[in-house]
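User: Quick sanity check before I run a bigger batch. Here is a single chain. Can you write out its predicted 3D structure?
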Amino acid sequence: MHAELMPVRRSAPTPPDPADGAPNDSRRSGVRTAVALVAFLLFAVVLPLQVRGAGAVFYTDTNFLIRYAVLVYAATKLATLLWQTDIRPVAGVFWIFVYTGMGLAPLAQLTTGRSTALAIQVDETLLTMASLLTLLGCVCFDLAYHVRARRRSLRGPRLRFRTLRSLDVLRVFSVASLVAALVYIVQVGGPQVFFLSRQETSQALDAINPDSGQALRAIISAGGSVACLTALIFYLHVWRTRDRTLAAVDGFIVAALAIINVIVNNPISNSRYWTLAVLFGLMLPLIRGRKGLFNAAVAGGVIASVVVFPLADVTRRAAGAGVPLQVDSMWTTIATKDYDQFTMLANTLGYTVDHGYSWGMQMLGPILFWVPRVAWPDKPLDTGVEVGLWMNSNNLNLSAPLWAEAWINFGLLGLIVTFVGLGLLARRLDTGFRAEILSKGSVGYLGISIFAGYLFILLRGSLLQSMGRLVVLVLSILILTAVTNRQERLKS
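Assistant: Done. Predicted structure follows.
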């Protein structure tokens, strides 16, 4: 009775049970944990034990543990990156470089008793100090990277991202980059020069104006290679996201960019570090938010740096001018080939013992790299060249790792400030790969992708050689993109 007065009870839709996604989340977390644990055991235990087992000379446990500390620190950070849900490309590149160049290679040099010829003037005290300074730089980078994260979380998210200005801007920039690349190709001597050895390509570039030194070479090669790479990566992004309609002219531009990049950015005539930058610039935009692919890239990058990289310089010299490849073991190859960064840091310490710090004068070279030496006869030499002359080395094509660049300018204070600054910058850039920013149409991550790969070059040094391409990269990103307005930035 009184049924007409009773409200009709409608069955409300059943809200999703939060526990429904728990098995998948738990499974993903378990997979990440397993991957991180396997990576840590491989990088921090298995490979160091293999290196120790290859020991052919006497060394103390203290020396082994000091160098091992750098390796295990980097291995721990790499495993952590694989375990975390975020994609952090800049931090990933930093720890890959530290693990192999400043951790595993010095350990192999210690146990095998083999090294590059550059170590002949370095005593054990300087080598130990080089390990400690390497570790200090890593700690400064790590603390700054995570302190920045905590400050951001306390005041709330502040999204700041960049969008493509317009397709017309991309078209104009692409045509301009093609013209610059064509000028580069013509001045060097034609497309065929870029498929010779690195030595022959460098000689052709040096012949353009021998009196200008490295300044003109850096500007010409950067303008001809970086801009067209950036344009191609941006076009691939537009094509992949399909957020803009491409016309027939865009197809011709993309085809021309692809051909030009094959010519000027091929791995035959370019350094292996620049090849890494190109690969990361092309690969990371395709990865975007796919953590599994990023983990594969990080783990694969470490393995490749140990197995492939030391043997990938077969195109460095002209035919018949190279030294026959002799491989005693993988660890001997790593110890004696091209990982001279640790040794050059120790040599830089020896240089400052004799000559003192430059107190910023050496830093003026990279800052004013664009000034020709004919206009500035006293322009500082490349740091690797400067230290090489002090060593009386016949080979002046030497690295100057970021630790050495910081030390030769301002000593301990310079090293601390440099790596704290790099940690802050790395965190800021890695923020560009956050899911909520990628979902808003950000294209700034494209520049971050190229910079992440280019960080290999900045860490290896020297800065004077690397500044040309870095400046062109930054200018290219600024030309092609615009920062979102304030209201959009502050939305979380």
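Residues 1-21, 153-157, 320-325, 486-492 have pLDDT under 50 and may be disordered.

User: Great, the batch can go ahead then.
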